[in-house]
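quick one, 376 residues, struct below
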Amino acid sequence: MPQSVLTRLFAAPSDWRTVLFTLLISLLVSWIASRIVCRLAARGLRALLRDTVVTSSPAVRRPLRLLGIASFVLTFAVLIVPAMEIAGLRPRTGVHLRTLAEWAFGAGLKILLIAALAYALIRTCTLLVRRFEHDLSLGTDLDALERGKRARTLGSVVNNATTAVVCAVAVLMILRELGLDIAPVLTGAGIVGLAVGFGAQTVVRDIISGFFLILENQVRVGDVAAINGTGGLVEAINLRTIVLRDVEGTVHVFPNGAINTLANRSKEFSYAVLEIGIDYEEDPDRITRILNEVGASLQADDRFRPLILEPLEVLGVEALADWSVLMKMRMKTVPLKQWEIGRELRKRILRRFGDQSVQLPSPRFGPQPPPRRADP
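---
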């Protein structure tokens, strides 16, 4: 390197070997820093995109390449002058070591503290969410699995919301420490937030309603429920929608914010409710005894005993119809088994009525004799 060039670049006589060595060291450190930045950015993109786009795609590689070049140039521009000063050289221009040291021990420490606190808050929230998910997922039964699914849904929402808020606040604070005016950013964010708030009121209402729907455990996947008068099996519960499939196989999707009525037919326990018509000539007390015998035989069956929680409860005469007397009864069952127990109970009642010669109601025409009175 000509001595005249060194004289213009440095305020004191300099050795070209020292200059070349300092340049090589600065280039090496800048290259390492750019590689670290690219790897961190690639890891963040993989976490953000997941399986949507592979990292070998040009849509991912080009931004990473540009980011690597920019970080290399920036690091080299910042380090070259302080490195030369450390080597005993006195460059005429650039970011001098004294200026860099003052910034590092001033705004630099503040930026480092802000980043560390933001990371600590995010990690603390993540650990608390994982502990919450673990505590609710204890057990191996179906209820524990449903609790774990609900906890993961709520934990994901809380974790993502906390991460977004903490990162946004930390970035704004770091920009302020770098001397940038964040007032336009805050103004723009406020305007965008106001516009999004007006345009997405329904979506926000659906998400909030879904959050409390899952938090309060009003309904679970696998339950049979009636939503706004439409009944079916709950196939999915999302933050914005709930999906039902009715008995015909039709899928109904309801926005959570539009749910006015929700009736869960399979939470904790269910009732198989039956109404049996008997002839006016039959004695209701005799029919009650027969029904209790049928219920006891059903509960004693090894096949149906695990599904029945309480004995058959005969509620009595429900109504006096044109040609029949309606007897109402119910049997407490485990969730989703009330229909199976009800069908089996009807079949056994029909057989027992045939064995006991119980007269079933039928329409009659013409004058009828007065109803028979039971013996006192």
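The chain has four domains: 3-95, 114-199, 220-264, 270-355.
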